[in-house]
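Re-running DNA 3'-5' helicase to confirm reproducibility after the cluster update. Everything else is unchanged from the original entry.
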Amino acid sequence: MPDGANQFSKLLQGLNEEQRSAVLHGLGSAPAECSPLLIIAGAGTGKTTTLTRRVAALIASGVDPARILLLTFTRRAAMEMLHRVEAALAKLQGAEASPMFQQVGRAVVGGTFHAVAARLLRQYGNAIGLSPDFTVIDRSDAEDVMHAVRAELELAKQNPKFPKKGTCLNIYSSVINTGARLSELLEEDHPQLLDDLDRLRALFQSYRERKLAEAILDYDDLLLYWDQLLAEPSVGPAVRERFDHVLVDEYQDTNTLQASILSQLCPHGNGLTVVGDDAQAIYAFRGATVRNILDFPQSHRDTTVIPLELNYRSRQPILDLANAVIQGASERLEKTLRANKVEGPKPWLVRARDETEQATFIADEVLELVEQGTELSEQAILFRSSFHSLALELELNRRGIPFHKYGGLKFIETAHVKDLIAFLRMAENPKDTLSVRRVLTMLPGIGDKAATKLTAQLIDANYDFNVWEDHTPAAATREYWSDFTQLINKLTGPWAKRASIEEQVRTVRLFYDRLIELLHDHADTRRRDLEQLEFISARASDRTSFLTEMTLDPPTSTRELSGQPGSNEDEDHLTLSTIHSAKGLEFDAIYVLQVTDGSIPSEMSLGTQEELDEERRLLYVALTRARLHLYVMHPLRQYTKRRGFNDAYGYTPLSRFLPKKLLPLLNERQAGPQEDTELSPHITGKANIQQSVGKRLDDMFQ
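Result of re-run:
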């Protein structure tokens, strides 16, 4: 035990040897002599406890709390950490106590990167020509400013396909946070926009000037100006000298700009402590780069690296699987999780015939665990993409199992799904002018003014859609108008009375497919959502019941979808969450949906080794949320609606992250009956064709 351990024995109570080493690192040294510290905190290893005890130990050793900077990624995390620092210091009594320990949370400079940036810019902004009275605008406001500037420059007139405000803001944000040149970023991520390079440059310049003129800053500006503040010789040293120690939580989630800020705050790394886990770096889509933590020991000389490997959350068989999965990464920091709680069952690999059988199995198993004493609130279903849970949501709703869903918009609340449903609502009830206007304004060349005129014509014609056949469309609308009126005639004529709701959804989807790239970003992902909607619609008996269930009164939360009116926040409920939103959480039982190639890893993330490694880390995060029970779900058939194929389903192999050599780490189980008489009524033996095919596919895809 280090020499300082006896002095801080009360702060070290309950810590393991690795945690103690991290807490005591450099204590008693002058800040300039405290070497950089990288704490590699594996899942469930007591990261927050270690970090807060280190802050408390620094204060107890005599460091002025006002000279400590604690950076987190959420305001809630910062408040919790500062509260725990105070609680830890409260343990020091008698001679070890000091007045500085009182209300230490008010003295330590703690908060998110953006909150701390705003605080410092108000104090020092004048030095770089920034008004201290600036207003911070959120994402929605920033989009509106971008839209206004875009309209003033008439960029859409110069190019009708010029990107919408959301895409423009995404590109602007990526340039700021990654430090990439606009031309390089477009070439890499948006090659279709290279012809708009000069227009985007003009837009972003005007956007910046508008914000300066109006004294407003968006989130990216806060970091950009903080970085610039530190770089200015006239003021940078004063800001830098305010802090002796800088501690950063979730370092694996930092971006290039945030790393630059930290490098300027601690030019030689002295006094810098970063805590993170490269195996849980899953936010590249937000601009984070795993390179920051992977390269930290090389970019900061004399770094002390302390891995936290003792896991207080999961049973050892769960960790064995997680360790094996992450070992397949092309590059990682070395650590192996070991369990404080050794005993426990192996995780389950559950083979299901399709997504419906997967949903049925999970609902059954959830209720079975409830019977055994595991409350709903201690169970969670995790998935790669929000639409993966749709079949399960409907099954839970059917059974009256209450649930909350987290991560992304709920499926039926997304813009593209609402777009498609608007066609059906318009056909079902022509008096629904909200849907009429929504549909009309999807068509190129039809704005609010034209939509108002066409809606008035429909009303004057007693809601007879035939009135639009005589309309002379604008040039931009012409190529769509004839097909559009034919579609409306089909949906309101004899064909709709014969056609199933699935056929109607498919017909609208095929027409809408021509518009989706004009209306929204990430068109391919949205197309898959709409294919899922087509799959779900097959269960409805008619259009009226389908619209009533799905869209007549769209729920504002999944609690409403689960059919629990009047329920409160304290009710026992199941958690449904994207893996991204579940990071940092833990449950007794975890079910991971659709662990198949194409889902985990996503078929959209197979382009580079970096993307594939991030998908592997995503599975690792999902697995390490489980305390006692872990279910890895493998539906053998998934709804794909592949072009050129008659069968709407496709066979899906088990994720490449679970190769054959890892299968002994799981117990295998079949969801549903062992005899599939529906598919093969002439087979009377015990062989299960679907399970056999699944294993055969696994071997083929090794």
